[in-house]
TrEMBL record:
Heterotetramer. Keywords: Methyltransferase, Nucleus, Transferase, tRNA processing. The lineage of its organism: Eukaryota, Metazoa, Spiralia, Lophotrochozoa, Mollusca. InterPro entries: EF_Hand_1_Ca_BS, TRM6. It comes from the Eukaryota. PROSITE patterns: EF_HAND_1. Residues 289-313 have a biased composition (Polar residues). The keyword Mitochondrion does not apply. GO terms for cellular component: nucleus; tRNA (m1A) methyltransferase complex. Residues 315-331 have a biased composition (Basic and acidic residues). One of its GO terms (molecular function) is methyltransferase activity. This is tRNA (adenine(58)-N(1))-methyltransferase non-catalytic subunit TRM6. Pfam families: Gcd10p. It comes from Magallana gigas.
Amino acid sequence: MATSSEPMCVDERKTSNVTIKEGDQAILKKGKTVRIFQIRKNRDIWLDKIKFSLDGAVGHYYGSTFVVKNGQMHKVQKTFKEAEVLGPEKGTDNRDLHDLDSNQKLSREDIEKMKKEGAKGQEIIEQLIENSTTFKGKTEYAQEKWVKKKKQKHVAEFTVLKPNTRLMCQMYHEKSPAKILNIRMDTLAQILTYGNVHAFTNVAVVDTCSGLVVGAVLERLGGYGKVFHFHPGERPVRPIVDNLNFPQEFLDNLYNFPFCEINSLKSEEGKSDNVSDNSHGDSVPSDGDSLSDTTVKQCTDSNTETNTAGESTEGQDKDNTDPVARKRKAEMSTREANKILYSKRLSEAKELLLKRNIDCLIIAGKFNPTPLVTTLIEYVAPSRPIVVYSQYKEAVMDAYAYLREIGCLVNYRVSETWLREYQILPMRTHPEIQMSAGGGYLLTATTIVKEQK
């Protein structure tokens, strides 16, 4: 029975990773519009001026395409292509065509009426083609572009995708690039490549770009390896990591480390050295001292017990009857448990960092990287890469000049990536009209064992 049930458990685990479940974060894509939502039943969302519910997507596989009808999502087996609705008549050029409202005989009211009657998107586009006075005079390429534009407007089809680093980077770069410090996908790929991030490595990351770099590193490690996230404030702000639906075994290898605790690493190292040096010289307290301490403690406990016996019984009676008090008590216990877990994880991170066995250091933040590099580089093992990203050249050049001066690295390199996307279509391959102006600056180097003078 055990051998037969194990494959079933593995299959169920694999199926659960590729099927849409309630509570998951999912990406909805329509054309170039990409947005992320949490799958929750009985809740309406707005996307591309369309209001609908995500209930119909639960249970299907990621990558499925759905059409919205009457506010509900219905899976479609096949979406029509632009070439399927094109007629045989085509024009030679568009020089005599003018963009006028009178070119289309169908009004907006007629189109809305067709949608309410349940007409499919392909039927609506066919009616638009029949009632257009200039469609037959357009060239083949112009007809395909026209149909694609109408399909984007009148066909409510969405593809549900599983969140990953590439899609999250694309979504943030188009919607709010300042939140990810204008990191493009090609720049993020270079950060991972130059950092030699792979399974069974320990990576230290300074990330203030909404957790994009931390999420990319966790995705690349695949649950094998440890990630130390250095962040400002008491708690990290990384919504991208929360939206990537990582399993718990991935998050167990992620350690949070505030900036304010970095200086305590040296003090912890000094304490450990003092303890090891003085371990043989510590004196054992005498029996008289321990007895006196115990006697004082017992007397104090007896006095406090007699004074607080009545108060504790009254408080317990109130807690048992008052639901607000019970809720407050549960919240306090949860808060205390979280504090204990936080301090335990922080101490574990300090122990691992003091081993000075970090395989890669990645810095991608809005702060000056020079003090961060010089402080954290001593915890990186020799012959390991470091990668510094900044959207400003001055910050990278300052770190480059300082690191060259202290001389603890080799193979210095400062680079800027220039990306140009191309439209790939038959007889119409050319660069895109709009392109990204810049993708930031990278400083890469390799650590060495510094000679002691």
